[in-house]
């Protein structure tokens, strides 16, 4: 957007300022005179106060807070970083006092949904790989990463792989799941979950999710079991644990394999058990936006030695570990490089700090957003620990005044990146046939109304305050627009 999207004439009606603020996402405008010179700022609170005294036809000048602004040559990035949420916006003016730009905490650099933090021993360990020439899938960091990750989860077997998607595929093939088999998957998840099942040659069976946890509904899974069902693949969506007690009980009754898709749930717990370490196998992703990262990468963990040994063989082209270049099966090249594992080891050293920051961010969002009508925050369930990979919420557009996409557009204009909740699998062309005639209302509703807010561990308290402030101003502005529209 250009600066003109934030400018309103002081002699314009209050309604004009209000509609401008509603569109620009900041809930704020700069009042200028006929020559474009700064008169001051206009925000929702001042407009509301002016409306109490007069009406929407009153002049903008009655709601102006005087502001001197800063000269246009100021170092915007340096100044905004010092603001850290302490001031909302500051106009930048030229020698004639015309507004040419403004500063906000997010203006010089958009606030991303997530970004990696590489502030530990990453460079040191990668440098060691390079100086010793151990840069491919052979090297001490791969074994160290697997050992340390397994110890953290309390599992006996962990295999580092090239990404989270192949981790799922490797787990399925390690258990011999393939053509003729059915695997139950939740409708609300990233496509990698169902893609891995299809690539394994098995048939995915899509079921609805629980409206409270947003994860696979055990009752829906139970209703979908047939004689061909071999496995259930619950997903711990956005860090929220699935109901593993019910899922494991269901699997035990029907002699099914449970493979947890914990790509988004490193650090999450279900009744004191780490997510990913409860089922027969668990998979993790270390993509750059995850709690810990290797750039691209993943891990698959097993409770039992037999599938772990088979997965280890398949990961390395199906080669017999005791007979070099002798292939016992058609395998894959799913190995992680020593360079990537070196980054992973450094990230694991910071795991507890990263997780603690994620929980701080979630608490901060809850403090500011929990009282806003029309926002449904992630459920807090006794005995379940959400790691909040990203802090996601559901927007009731009828109560909030604008729908999910309209709010995301306003946040984008304010320099805030958001993400829509995943599309339901059954709605996308490659997967429509896997839902059968099942009704999937919960996934459909949640997908259409859900969004994820900035949640990376590098997010500052000031940026959280800024994000929440924009959301609050969007709501306040929308309520005033509705009020003058019905007056």
Structure at a glance:
With 487 residues, the chain is an alpha/beta fold.
Topology at a glance:
Layout (H helix, E strand, L loop, with lengths): L6 E3 L4 H11 L3 E5 L5 E6 H10 L16 E2 L4 H8 L6 E4 L5 E5 L18 H11 L7 H14 L3 E5 L2 H11 L7 E5 L5 H8 L3 E5 L10 H7 L4 E4 L11 H11 L2 E5 L7 E2 L2 E2 L6 E5 L12 E5 L2 H11 L22 H11 L2 H19 L5 E2 L7 E2 L5 E5 L1 H4 L3 H10 L5 E2 L20 H9 E4 L7 H26 L1
Parallel strand pairs: 1-2, 4-5, 8-9, 8-10, 10-11, 11-14
Antiparallel strand pairs: 2-3, 5-6, 7-15, 12-13, 12-17, 14-15, 16-18, 18-20, 19-20
Number of strands: 20
The rounded distance between the terminal residues' Cα atoms is 30 Å
Largest pleated sheet: 7 strands, mixed
* Largest sheet: spatial strand order: 7-15-14-11-10-8-9
Question: Radius of gyration from the CA trace?
Answer: 26 Å
- The portion of residues forming beta strands comes to 15-25%
- Which residue ranges are poorly predicted, with pLDDT under 50 across at least 5 consecutive positions? none
Query: What's the helical proportion of residues?
Result: 25-40%
Shape: elongated
The helix count comes to 16
Judged by helices, strands and strand pairing, the structural class is: alpha/beta
Q: What's the average pLDDT?
A: 93
How would you characterize this protein structure?
With 487 residues, the chain is of the alpha/beta class. Helix content is 37%, strand content 16%. The strands form 5 sheets. It has a 7-stranded mixed β-sheet, sandwiched between helices. Strands 16-18-20-19 form a 4-stranded antiparallel β-sheet. A 3-stranded mixed β-sheet has the order 1-2-3. β8 (182-186), α7 and β9 form a beta-alpha-beta unit. α1 (14-24) packs across α16 (461-486), α4 (122-132) packs antiparallel against α11 (338-348) and α6 crosses α10. It starts with 6 loop residues before the first strand and ends with a helix.
């Amino acid at each position: 957007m250009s600066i003109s999207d934030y400018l309103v004439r002081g002699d314009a009606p209050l309604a004009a300022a209000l509609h401008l603020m509603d569109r620009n996402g900041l809930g704020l405008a700069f009042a200028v005179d006929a020559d474009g010179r700064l008169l001051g700022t206009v925000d929702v609170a001042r407009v509301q106060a002016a409306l109490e005294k007069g009406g929407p036809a009153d002049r903008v000048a009655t709601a102006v807070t005087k502001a001197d602004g800063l000269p246009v040559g100021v170092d915007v990035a340096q100044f905004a970083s010092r603001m850290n949420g302490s001031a909302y916006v500051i106009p930048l003016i030229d020698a004639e006092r015309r507004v040419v730009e403004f500063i906000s905490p997010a203006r010089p650099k958009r606030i991303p949904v997530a970004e990696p933090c590489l502030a530990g021993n990453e460079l040191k360990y990668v440098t060691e790989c390079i100086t010793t020439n151990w840069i491919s899938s052979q090297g001490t960091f791969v074994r160290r990463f697997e050992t340390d990750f397994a110890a953290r989860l309390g599992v006996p077997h962990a295999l580092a792989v090239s990404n989270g998607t192949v981790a799922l595929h490797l787990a399925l093939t390690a258990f011999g799941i393939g053509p003729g088999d059915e695997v139950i998957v939740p409708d609300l998840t990233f496509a990698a979950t169902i893609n891995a099942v299809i690539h394994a040659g098995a048939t995915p069976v899509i079921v609805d999710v629980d409206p409270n946890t947003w994860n696979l509904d055990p009752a829906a899974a139970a209703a979908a079991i047939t004689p061909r069902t071999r496995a259930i693949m619950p997903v711990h969506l956005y860090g929220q644990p699935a109901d593993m007690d019910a899922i494991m009980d269901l699997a035990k009754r029907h002699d099914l394999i449970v493979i947890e898709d914990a790509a988004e749930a490193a650090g999450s717990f279900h009744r004191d058990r780490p997510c990913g370490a409860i089922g027969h196998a668990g998979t993790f992703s270390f993509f750059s936006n995850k709690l810990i990262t290797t750039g691209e990468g993943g891990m698959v963990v097993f409770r039992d030695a037999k599938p772990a040994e088979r997965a280890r063989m398949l990961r390395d082209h199906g080669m017999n570990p005791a007979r070099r270049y002798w292939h016992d099966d058609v395998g894959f090249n799913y190995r992680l490089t020593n360079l990537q594992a070196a980054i992973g080891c450094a990230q694991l050293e910071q795991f507890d700090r990263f997780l603690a920051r994620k929980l701080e961010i979630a608490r901060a969002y809850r403090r500011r957003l929990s009282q806003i009508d029309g926002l449904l925050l992630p459920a807090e369930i006794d005995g379940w620990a959400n790691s909040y990979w990203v802090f996601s919420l559901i927007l009731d557009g009828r109560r909030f005044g604008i729908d999910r996409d309209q709010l995301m557009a306003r946040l984008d204009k304010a320099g805030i990146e958001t993400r829509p909740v995943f599309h339901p699998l059954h709605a996308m062309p490659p997967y429509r046939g896997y839902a059968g005639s099942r009704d999937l209302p919960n996934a459909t509703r949640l997908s259409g109304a859900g969004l994820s807010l900035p949640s990376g561990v590098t997010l500052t308290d000031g940026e959280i305050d800024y994000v929440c402030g924009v959301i609050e101003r969007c709501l306040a502005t929308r309520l005033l627009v509705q009020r003058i529209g019905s007056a």
